[in-house]
TrEMBL record:
Its EC number is 2.5.1.15. It holds the Pfam family Pterin_bind. Residues 1-250 form the Pterin-binding domain. PROSITE patterns: DHPS_2, PTERIN_BINDING. This is dihydropteroate synthase.
Amino acid sequence: MGILNVTPDSFSDGGKFLHTDLALQQVEAMINDGATIIDIGGESTRPGAAEVSETDELARVIPLLKAIKENFTVEVSIDTSKAGVMEQAISYGADIINDVRALQNDNCLNVMANTTVPICLMHMQGLPRTMQQAPKYNDLIGDISDFFKQRIDACLTAGIARERLILDPGFGFGKTLSQNYQLLNQLSAFKALGLPILSGTSRKSMIGNLLSCEVTERLAGSLTTAIIAMQQGASIIRVHDVKETVDALNILKATNNYHVLN
Ligand code: 7PM
């Protein structure tokens, strides 16, 4: 899954077409590099970010989604927690809903019950503005598993088929450095729930804080976490650096399948 970077000012009137064009070039490059899903990220999911209105979010996401669907054959995932955005995005061809709030916001379960697309349920402790202040768990893996079970049950009760669900432990969303690495170390524990796992560690603070490096210097760290997540059984890896990640994962794949290589 390639992350489409949408800059904050991308939708100001003057820059609209230029930015859509730049976004489409980014999408084309990610597809050529081996991405099979493009995640259109909402600014609203960033830790510490301010709330974005539904009108603003729609104005950002829908034109881009339309443009991608008109120009490419690729699955598009929409990063949103708003029922109205989910509904509209799906009507414009969104293939996956990626919700860092795991359908806990008003009307999300109801809207998604009337659709058939896959849904990524992400775990977050607290809210983006404050979640990194003092993350606390009784039992990290157990608490997150319990959250997943509760959200899976809520989906089933609402009439959303289990087969549509993808689980994501939410690296960096209300977790200390140590907790993030415990999650990576024990990611396979969530396989017990019988659903695909999505892992998103690309360029995150868990890499930068460990290695003391800025966001532009996190490629090696990001690739290493991608490999570990895959070895732990993740099905989808959400990344900025598609080409490098696909290369790294192809090496892992060859290693696991050496007996069928020539
Ligand atoms: C600043 C800090 C900007 C962090 C953006 C972020 C995830 C996600 C994000 C994830 C799923 C980023 C994050 N992270 N959706 N959205 N899983 N499913 O690194 O880990 O893009 S926002």
